[in-house]
Design brief:
Elements (H helix, E strand, L loop, with lengths): L2 E7 L6 H15 L3 E7 L6 H11 L3 E5 L6 H11 L4 E4 L11 H9 L5 E5 L7 H18 L12 E4 H5 L11 H7 L5 E5 L15 H19 L4 H30 L12 H28 L14
Parallel strand pairs: 1-2, 1-4, 2-3, 5-7
Antiparallel strand pairs: 4-6, 5-6
Bound molecules: uridine-5'-diphosphate (UDP) and magnesium ion.
């Protein structure tokens, strides 16, 4: 099979027939063998009835339906597990992404050897409250992830070599950072294609402003995981040692001052009035805590079933 189209959806009943028909037309014109995997993320409207009807008319239509709304990332993850095509294409269900882009994306993966190609909604048809923060978000994501050539990390329209989607795990809200996940898994040939974008035709957006706060927190998590995920002691041990050394010198200072004051008639040293006393307390305690966190982190990593999963590029 050439292409699997994975489509996460949450209450998109109006768009689905038009979208399916459009995909069907593009696939037919290009002679692709394909499947459409709708992942219904707990819709409360009639989306599932619509999909059932579409499936009865077209054998390429498949569906997985969650019993409640879990989010776009879990929906993509399940779609990825089910996908059988050589190239996997994800797109939003709201008709904002155009199926006309599929052939070009497919060829970039198959002929140009990209692992992942992300769409770039260069000209966006979304409100300003969405487009401006997105620019900032993408600039940060480029910097942190080191994927310098991407302008639009969170574009719903993306194409992958099948191998890639089988080796990444999209969870939480991590769909915003799939290129970063792919890069961390060892897939480095990540490209971009300018894609057409439309204003939402039916329904409303499913993401509010909280996505920016969560987006930044997730970026921090991913950065931390990719740097220290399998060696947490390298960061906590370093911090712990630094704290402990500072605390130790503070203790020595306090002791010296105390000794000096004991042998002096004029100099009185009050332990609780000395800044070094508090420094020694705080830093020694913090240092020990960082160390303990590091050890616990190491224990957790040690027990992770993933700890020895390496992506092997070649073997003779
Ligand atoms: N979506 C989903 N689960 C959710 C939220 C959204 O499957 O909890 C789907 C939604 O139906 C759409 C896609 O994810 O197909 C993108 O959502 P939306 O168009 O609301 O995002 P926007 O384009 O406004 O960023
Ligand atoms: Mg949309």
């Amino acid at each position: 099979m050439d292409i699997s189209v994975v489509i996460p959806l949450f209450n998109e009943e109006e768009s689905l027939p038009e979208l399916t028909e459009w995909i069907q037309r593009v696939m037919g014109q290009n002679g692709f063998s394909y499947e459409i995997i709708f992942v219904n993320d707990g819709s409360t409207d009639r989306s599932m009835d619509v999909i059932k009807k579409l499936a009865s008319q077209n054998a390429a239509v498949h569906a997985v339906s969650f019993s409640r709304n879990y989010g776009k990332s879990p929906a993509l993850n399940v779609g990825f597990q089910r996908a059988k095509g050589d190239v996997v294409i994800t797109m939003d269900a709201d008709l904002q992404d155009s199926p006309d882009e599929i052939p070009a994306l497919y060829h970039m993966i198959v002929s140009e050897g990209y692992d992942l190609v992300s769409g770039w909604k260069k000209k966006r048809y979304d409100p300003l409250s969405k487009t401006f923060p997105t620019k900032l978000f993408n600039a940060t994501a480029r910097k942190v992830s080191g994927i310098k050539n991407l302008h639009d990390f969170n574009c719903g329209l993306k194409a992958y070599r099948r191998d890639v989607v089988k080796h990444i795990e999209v969870y939480g809200d991590m769909h915003r950072y799939i290129p970063y996940l792919a890069k961390n898994a060892g897939y480095k040939k990540i490209g971009e294609k300018v894609v057409k974008h439309q204003a939402r035709k039916y329904g409303t957006t499913k993401f509010g402003l909280d996505r920016f706060v969560n987006g930044y927190l997730d970026l921090g998590t991913l950065w931390f995981q990719s740097r220290f995920g399998i060696k947490p002691m390298h960061i906590f041990g370093l911090l712990g040692s630094l704290m402990f050394i500072i605390g130790f010198f503070a203790v020595v200072t306090v002791l010296i001052m105390k000794l000096v004051s004991m042998h002096s008639e004029t100099y009185h040293f009050y332990l609780t009035k000395s800044v070094y006393f508090y420094l020694s307390l705080v830093f020694m305690v913090l240092g020990v805590q960082f160390f303990c966190t590091g050890f616990i982190g190491e224990m957790i990593t040690r027990n992770s079933p993933e700890r020895n999963n390496y992506l092997i590029a070649e073997e003779f």
